[in-house]
């Protein structure tokens, strides 16, 4: 007997749309590594130099050859990695929720899976962005003493202006995104000069919008995500973004891997995907498998600046 359309379908389109629409306010890594489609699992990373800012001899005499330029170059071959998890809905959950309105256990299972998958990606993005070894010597600093923003004498505004100029001279554009770790954000909110700047506002605390206007960037994000070691579940949670600030240039419009950027997350088209669910007799459960093929890459690290050990009180 031939399979029906629903039986032959491999990907569940409804649950996949739920996975694509999953949002978590704690995830800020995509602000530095926006997602772009990778046509296949193996591809070459486009890295960027200073070509877009060269002063070319563009004037052409009649009949002369035209100057030819190309922005970016194909660098290392990457292979997308795949995260895969299965959401489980035991029959007991379904039985116990009978009669309750708007209970959709498959949606909850998919959201739980996406929470884990996006946390894994967030950790990878943060590890790339906050590793000093990934930066040139001029594009990073470790704050000490009165330079730490928790110190009353520290002047974050003057420091960030200098750091922004380093990025501008490195890649040709001003950085437009700042990602804060929670300790660094607390240091900024309590900094004496910052509080003096905003003392006449009605807000009780410094907001991300206020900080973005003060530092003259498009986005300020605070990465509050935490993770735990499954091998030691009783241990304290750890901050994903640590006591760091990452200042970077990231294009804000559209998906275009040919636009210079601090980083990108290459994603296989259509991912994440939720496969058609199935019944498992061994656990008396409905199973919804999901997979996410992607890879976060630093494509223009000269477009970034890393500020470490921001909070001396942490």
What does this structure look like?
This protein is of the alpha+beta class and 314 residues long. Strands 1, 4, 11, 12, 13 and 14 form a 6-stranded mixed sheet that branches. A 5-stranded mixed sheet has the order 5-15-10-6-7. A two-stranded antiparallel sheet has the order 2-3. The longest helix has 25 residues. The protein starts with a helix and ends in a 6-residue tail after the last strand. The N terminus is likely disordered.
Task: Give the arrangement of secondary structure elements.
Elements: H1 5-8, H2 13-20, E1 35-37, E2 42-47, E3 73-79, E4 81-90, H3 91-96, H4 105-129, E5 140-142, H5 156-171, E6 177-180, H6 182-190, H7 192-197, H8 208-215, E7 219-222, E8 226-227, E9 238-239, E10 244-248, E11 263-267, E12 273-274, E13 278-280, E14 285-298, E15 304-308
Mean pLDDT: 81
Q: Which parts are unreliable, with pLDDT below 50 for 5 consecutive residues or more?
A: 1-9
- Assess the beta-strand content as a share of residues: 15-25%
Number of beta-strand segments:
15
- Output the number of helix runs: 8
- How would a textbook summarize the main sheet? 6 strands, mixed
Give me the strand/helix succession. Answer: HHEEEEHHEHEHHHEEEEEEEEE
Straight-line N-to-C gap: 66 Å
Radius of gyration: 24 Å
Instruction: Supply the helix-strand structural class.
Output: alpha+beta
Task: Give structural attributes.
8 helices; six-stranded mixed β-sheet; alpha+beta
Short description:
The protein is an alpha+beta fold.
């Amino acid at each position: 007997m031939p399979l029906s359309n629903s039986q032959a379908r491999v990907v569940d389109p409804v649950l996949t749309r739920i996975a694509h629409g999953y949002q978590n306010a704690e995830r800020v890594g995509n602000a530095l590594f926006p997602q772009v489609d990778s046509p296949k699992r193996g591809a070459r990373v486009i890295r960027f130099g200073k070509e877009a800012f060269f002063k070319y001899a563009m004037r052409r005499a009649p009949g002369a050859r035209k100057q030819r330029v190309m922005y970016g170059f194909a660098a290392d071959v990457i292979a997308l990695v795949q995260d895969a998890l299965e959401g489980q809905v035991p029959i007991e959950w379904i039985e116990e929720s009978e009669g309750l309105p708007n209970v959709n256990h498959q949606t909850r299972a998919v959201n739980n899976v996406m929470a884990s998958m996006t946390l894994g990606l967030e950790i990878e993005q943060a590890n790339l962005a906050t590793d000093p070894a990934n930066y040139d010597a001029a594009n990073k600093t470790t704050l000490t003493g009165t330079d730490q923003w928790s110190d009353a004498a520290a002047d974050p505004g003057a420091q960030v202006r200098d750091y922004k100029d380093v990025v501008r001279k490195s890649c040709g554009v001003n950085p437009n995104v700042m990602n804060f770790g929670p300790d660094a954000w607390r240091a900024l909110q309590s900094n004496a000069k910052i509080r003096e700047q905003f003392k006449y506002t009605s807000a009780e605390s410094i907001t991300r919008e206020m900080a973005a206007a003060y530092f003259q960037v498009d986005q300020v994000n605070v990465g509050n995500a935490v993770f735990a070691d499954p091998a030691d579940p009783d241990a304290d949670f750890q901050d994903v973004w640590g006591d760091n600030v990452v200042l970077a240039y990231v294009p804000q419009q559209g998906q275009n891997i040919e636009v210079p950027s601090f980083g990108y997350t290459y994603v296989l088209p259509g991912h994440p995907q939720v496969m058609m669910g199935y019944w498992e007799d061994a656990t008396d459960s409905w199973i919804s498998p999901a997979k996410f093929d992607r890879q976060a890459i630093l494509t223009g690290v000269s477009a970034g600046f890393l500020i470490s050990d921001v909070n001396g009180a942490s």
